[in-house]
Amino acid sequence: MQATFKIGDKAVYPAHGVGEVTAIEDREISGHHQTFYILRILENGMRIMVPLSNVAAVGLRSVCNKNEVKEVYDILKTREVSVDGQTWNRRYREYMEKIKTGSVFEIAEVLRDLCVLRVSKDLSFGERRMLEQARSLLVRELALAKGVGEDKVGAEIDALFSAAAA
Fold this sequence. Notes:
By secondary structure, this protein is an alpha+beta fold. It has 6 helices and 5 strands.
């Protein structure tokens, strides 16, 4: 089922994170009339136009609910992961694909795997950037879903992994 949004709603755009629907506009592009959601990405203010007919294809979705938040924390707490078996560039491509899906669960897996891996070896520059991207996307969405500050969610996530490193 495709999500429908109103002006003021928060929505998640894959790989960019949470945005706010600031307008719903009709435009004519190349002779075709289309209706668009106009999103402003909260992190950087970027404006994105998403045709209503393309919402499912681009993966635009609602912010996760309370049950999904619990599931994300369960994923983050899991430690039975094998991340050593592949080269960093193959791992990087695989994780990038997961981030691009926009799935809060896939992003949680990327964050967890990189945090676990970071304990046993130095991450490449690209992996460190990816870890920060996954953390940022997750923190912003979970804070919104839980109705708390980003700093609180960030501290909770950091605590999960600092305990694992100790």
